[in-house]
Specification:
By secondary structure, this protein is of the alpha+beta class. It is built from 16 helices and 11 strands. It folds into 2 domains: 172 residues, no CATH class; 212 residues, no CATH class. The longest helix is centred in the first third of the chain and has 24 residues. Keywords: Signal.
Amino acid sequence: MRCLAWLLAVLLLPLTVAAMVVLASLDQTALVTRGETISPRSIAQARSLLESNDPRRLHRGDQRTADIPAALIDEGINYLASRSLHGRGAFVLAEDTAEIRLTVRAPGPWTPRYLNLSAIFREAEGEPQVAAAKVGTLPIPSVLVEWLLASAVKAGGFGEEWQLTRQSIRQLVFEPARGMVGVTYVWEPGILDHARSRVFSPDDIAHLQAAQRALAGLLDHHAARARVPLATVLTPLLTRTGDATQQQARASLLVLATYLAGENLATLLPEARHWPRPRPLRLTLLGRDDSAQHFGISAALAAWAGEPAANAIGLYKELDDSRGGSGFSFADLAADRAGTRFGQLVAQDSSRLKDALRGTLTDAELAPPLGGLPEYLSADEFQRRFGGRGNRAYQQQLREIERRVAALPLYR
């Protein structure tokens, strides 16, 4: 018995020491304090970056240099920290180095305590190198940080992707004056294949295929180009096998959003090229094609990527339209917001949504009335009437949209 007790003490000692180190490293103030929002500017930057580094135009062994805005990396790290750790993150550029900061609130009934982590990376040939790191005020050896990072990635099931990405990077250059990080890489198609397999599990693919077939079947009952209310399609699509499971509902929203955007699902999932293509119709919400598009796409984004991403992409689209498209529209933002709330209910596996789907949802239950919301505003007119996003007049319109959406029983 004494031998067994000694053995247990030896085994538990590292865990005890680690727990004591973590507790001693907790701070009373957070290193990173910010919201979870994503700016429309970051959406525009991400779109531009993807267009200039489109993997569909790259071949194995192609060497490219991508200039990545530091602000985009900053918001991306914060978004990932918020989604995966329920914390906050930041990315700060300096001369020849860059720092990643993370803050996670420690659980417990006591006065708020925070686990603050920071790691400084230096410019390097090849993969990034950790120059220094600490938890709270406690320094951590760089070798230990790299090992912990690799172990965490491997434990999360991304070990192979991590290895491929590290092998593909040839050089990092930090340019604080330009607010850019230059990444020279050699393209490896396996990175995209592995990323796609992580986004869509085999179960996801099966649900997407079933949803695509269901949507094609629902639309086959209508004449081509007919105008069909979105609500008459949405409910049976989500409940085709009885109660809408979360995975089934998410798949249905993605299939519907792809259809509403006029895109082929095969651009996301090559297997879909062999699936039935739904008949081209004009799905409407409150009698409007554009409202159906905004609602459906925002719902899918919220269900798959979260509320901040859905809100940012909706606002980016309106700002882009004001510069030469159909113009900035608060009515479109209202449809976006309603769709985002719907997608959130799906992501939360909401019992309220399940109860509503047992009946027959109508357009008026999905989205608020749009009358009186300013539309078709050019960039100049939008600036003259509403200033910037922080302007009081602009915020009043957003509050009115929130009031209308919150008045609907489904989102109350």
